Amino acid sequence: MNYLELVRLASPEIVVVVTALAVLAIGLASTRASGICSFVAALGLALAIGAALMLPRNATLFHGMLVISPLNSLFKIICLALAFFTVLLAHAKNSLRNHGEYLAIILLATIGLMLLVGSEELLMIFIGLELTGLSLYVMAAFDKTDVRSAEAGLKYFLFGSTASAFTLFGISFIYGMSGTTGLAAVGQKLATQSIQPLLFVGIVMTLVGFAFKIAAAPFHLWAPDAYQGAPVPSAAFIASGSKVASFVVLGKIVLVGFGPVHGSAAWHAMTAGWAPVLAVLAALSIVIGNLVALAQSNVRRLLAYSAVAHAGYTLLGLVAGGRDGFSATLFYTTVYAFTLVGAFGVVALVRRETGGDDLQNFAGLWSRSPLLAGCMSIFMLSLAGLPPLAGFFGKFYLFSVALRAGANHGLLWLVALALFGSLVSLYYYLIVLKVIFTDQSGDAATSIAARLGSDIELLQRITLSVLAIVVLLLGIMPGILLTQIAVSL
Amino acid sequence: MIAWTIYITFAGAVVLLFMPHAFSRWIALVTTVAGFVVSLIAFFQMSIVDLAHFNTIVRVAWVPMLGMNYHLAVDGISLTMALVTGLVAIASVLFSWDVDHRPNEFFFWLLLVVGGSYGVFLSADLFLLFLFYELVIVPKYFLIAIWGSTNKEYGAMKLTLYSFFGGALVFIGIIAAYVTAGSLDLNQLAEFQFAPQLQSWAFPMLFIGFAVLAGIWPLHTWAPTGHVAAPTAGSMLLAGIVMKLGSYAGLRVAMNLFPQGFQIWRGWMAVFAVIGIVYAAAVALRQRDLKFVIGYSSVSHMGFVLLGLAAANALGVSGAVLQMFSHGVIGALLFAVAGRMVYRRTHTRDLDALSGMGLNQALPFAAFSFVIASAASMGIPGFSGFAAEITILIGSWKTYPVAVWITGAGMVLVAAFTLRAVKQSFFGERSALGGSTASPGDAKSYSASPTFVTSSAERSIHPPDLAPVTLAEKFGACLLMFATLAVGLYPKLLLDRIMPAVETMRFLSK
After folding, report:
1. pLDDT digits over A37-80, tens only?
2. Is pLDDT at A307 greater than 90 in this prediction?
3. By CB count within 10 A, which of A122, A428, B69, B267 is most buried?
4. Residue B56 DSSP label
5. B22 and chain A: CB distance < 8 Å anywhere?
6. For residue range B472-503, what is the model confidence (pLDDT) as tens digits?
7. Is residue A112 scored above 70 in pLDDT?
8. Which of B62, B66, B194 would best serve as a mutation to test chain A binding (most A beta carbons within 10 A)?
9. Which of A389, A419, A481 would best serve as a mutation to test chain B binding (most B beta carbons within 10 A)?
């Protein structure tokens, strides 16, 4: 293995590292160069996407520490794209202080995500988790003028580090049982061994760590505060990029690594394994997320609880298992991530315009900015799962896979619960839209709108429109993404 | 050819978003007329033999991995439903000619409802059908929540959640069919032999899901509140098209796919149908709000559709389809008169208040249309309502004679509440006596405030100064009246096309 080969295979990561350093340097050199910083960061991410496209189809480095496969490359590109949109949305005239540093941290988090999706080895996965996690803690706490941001960062950090400890502990057990950390090797070992209680302890502990990452109930308690308090682009990235990568890795771990101890979550035929654990997490997330979201009056908090519910839906695919289940999960989580970045983008603009992100700040958004209102309705309706948007197809795919999986419709209970959850969720998404389209904006908001109404930057408008079109397009022609995922599995 | 109804309507909707306000209603009118003309051409072009089977017109692979196709097909039933969609769409645009609050959006949502409905009626792929079916939900919400009247946000949310709840049940049924048969093609599924055990639970799941939208008792409660809250065009679309989506899909999907399940449950369907007909008519008899009366009458009429379907013979089911057409037209006309012609001018729908106004003299054309619509609704021979209901009753006589007896009694109630509504809204006695026609007993039982009575008395003394009926309204009303008369006088026109299509379905009891 020569170094040139290594550079070639790790080129996307290297491009992002170099970009992060460059952005950091520019940010330090000049305090006013936030425009240049954003430009460089976006350019670097675009280059990295290009580099990821040029990667060979299959390659393995260091015994699975870094694996290049169509699936990994696809999700590297998706994570890079999410980071790209986040950087564009974070660009603003009156943005945070130290914009360069902020962007550099986003880029570092992106590297963490790329390592996470690009590895099939437990230790490397843990390193990826930590790199992502540490960057995201800083991103959450970045707004030094806002005490809520500090609270968000602290809570996220405390919960996150505890969860990391669980994961590491679980991984150590699994290593102890199987004597290896490569996922495929772990899977082979487990297939030959008799199942021992210690193994289940390891599996459950590993899953706890990931349940935290994807904000599945009952490990979701950090999410509302982090989503609400963190600077909006940070929240968007935590909710989208981190989640996508976590689902990719979780899927690999349970399906490849723990494949032999699948178990069953079918109603009358539950057997021990990770599937029932995930099924319980999914059911709890769907119920708690949706019911608590009903009571929220802050849009970001509402999105946080709805994120918990969506984590529950997404888990359905993994519970169903198999290639179909995994691809349904991947499709859904990708669509969800793009939708959520868009939704947070709208929230960011409304917050900048009216100074808050409570429901009443959205009142009469329609008359102030039809474009934002249109985009927001596309995002909200896609989250609610209505056609012809991507969320509708995602849910259809996910639920049909889940219903097919358990023999004799064994997972019907979970699907029915998820459908009930969607029904509840439609109510709160419609409330947001109702406020946007039918309520009149208050006096304060209109006067601010008159002052700042034209101040919504062109770049953000374009970004949001692009995201809305992506969500619409993936709903009308889901085949585009679906075939990509299917051929790469 | 007929696939263009969908494309034209959605294209019109998108164009609307980018046009100045002044053009919006014209674009909407042109779009809906074009859609109707397309289905009319198809109606005359396609031979009756072709319409006996659900023949594919477009079939493009869509998501091949999951076996989804963009697959449209047409038979006599679909074509009939497309026709009523076109008619009601044109009329609803004409009756919203004066919408000047955010008109572009209004017509955008309206066209989405229309386009989605065309889509449901023409889909031959289960996923596509469900997509269009769910597509119609949100536009309805906005139409009511933004442009509605009485208690609009409550009515809109209730309607939307009910529809979505029905959609969730349908969803499970559809997925169950899909994962069992491994196909989404309606024609293939209709030939697949599902296990009886699956049929016995999947059929009620699907049918109840669809019945929510069809306004079948006891899942009808969204209908009256929704109709009352909706703007005129909204009620027209709801009664004329959206409720038919449910009954059509119940026939096309639930009954056609799960014939054995249908055989198990059809006795219950007949029971619910009869209860619905009688109960809704009885409730309508006691309503004070004109729109509530019409809303409950819709529920009652949809009960006839269910009865026809439950009969499970060619005559009954064809009658049900004819009734879908007929009630689409009549319901739309009733709501148009009540909502646009009367309510927009008098600002009240209270029957007692209206009866003091002498509207038959102030708005003769409105009175004329309302009488025609009521006559059709009561089932007077010569109108489409009669043709449809008599076909249903003859059909179900063979299977459920008792149901026909009870329904006969129910029809008396229908006549009673319709006549009461006609009398009180248009032919109340004017002059000083008019005030007291709301007799003391009535006033007490309805707890009408005393000031209310005096105000209506005052109004009756000074004849209300009402704007005359506009040309657009006259056109719209004439179109619908013509349709109900044409089908009433010559029902063969539609039945010739519906009957063969029904006869090819496999659920008919031998």
Report:
1. 888 899 999 999 999 888 887 888 777 778 888 898 999 999 99
2. yes
3. A122
4. E
5. no
6. 888 989 999 999 999 999 988 888 889 888 88
7. yes
8. B66
9. A419
Q: For the residues A311-316, what does the mean pLDDT come to?
A: 93
CB-based contact A415 B134, cutoff 8 Å: no
Per the listing, tokens 């169950």 go with B176
B175 shares contact with chain A (CB less than 8 Å) = yes
pLDDT at A22: 92
Q: Give residue A456's domain range.
A: 262-489
Q: Is A486 part of a structural domain of the chain?
A: yes
Please report the number of interchain residue pairs, chain A to chain B, with beta-carbon separation below 8 angstroms: 72
**Contact across the interface for B63 and A482, Cβ inside 8 Å:** yes
Check residue A93 and give its pLDDT.
Answer: 59
Per-residue pLDDT tens over the stretch A230-243: 988 999 999 999 99
| Chain A contact present for B60, CB below 8 A | no
- Using an 8 Å CB-CB cutoff, list residues of chain A that contact chain B: 381, 386-388, 392, 396-397, 399-400, 403-404, 409, 412, 415-416, 419-420, 422-423, 426-427, 430, 433-434, 437-438, 477-479, 482-483, 486
**Residue A6 lies inside a defined structural domain of this protein:** no
Q: Which chain B residues are closer than 8 Å to A427 by Cβ?
A: 157, 161
Nearest CA in chain B to A378: B138
Find, in chain A, the residue whose alpha carbon is nearest to that of B152.
Answer: A438
Q: What value does the mean pLDDT of chain B take? A: 86
SS (HEC) of chain A: CCHHHHHHHCHHHHHHHHHHHHHHHHHHHCCCCHHHHHHHHHHHHHHHHHHHHHCCCCEEEHHHCEEECHHHHHHHHHHHHHHHHHHHHHCCCCCCCCHHHHHHHHHHHHHHHHHHHCCCEHHHHHHHHHHHHHHHHHHHCCCCCCHHHHHHHHHHHHHHHHHHHHHHHHHHHHHHHHCCCEHHHHHHHHHHCCCCHHHHHHHHHHHHHHHHHCCCCCCCCHHHHHHHHCCHHHHHHHHCHHHHHHHHHHHHHHHHHCHHHCCECCCCCCECCHHHHHHHHHHHHHHHHHHHHCCCCEHHHHHHHHHHHHHHHHHHHHHHCHHHHHHHHHHHHHHHHHHHHHHHHHHHHHHHHHCCCEHHHHCCHHHHCHHHHHHHHHHHHHHHCCCCCHHHHHHHHHHHHHHHHCHHHCCHHHHHHHHHHHHHHHHHHHHHHHHHHCCCCCHHHHHHHHHHHHHCCHHHHHHHHHHHHHHHHHHHCCHHHHHHHHHHC
Chain segment B80-115, per-residue pLDDT in tens: 999 999 999 999 999 988 888 888 888 999 999 999
Domain assignment present for residue A477? The answer is yes
- SS3 (DSSP) at B231: coil
Question: With contacts defined as CB-CB under 8 Å, which chain B residues touch A483?
Answer: 65
Asked if B165 has any chain A CB less than 8 Å from its own CB, the reply is yes
Q: Which of B138, B145, B171 sits opposite A386 (nearest CB)?
A: B138
Which of A2-11, A265-274, A362-371, B33-42 is least confident? A265-274
CA distance to partner chain B, nearest, from residue A384 (Å): 10
Neighbouring CB atoms inside 10 A of B461's CB total 13
Q: What is the ipTM of this complex?
A: 0.88
- What's the number of domains chain A is made of? 1
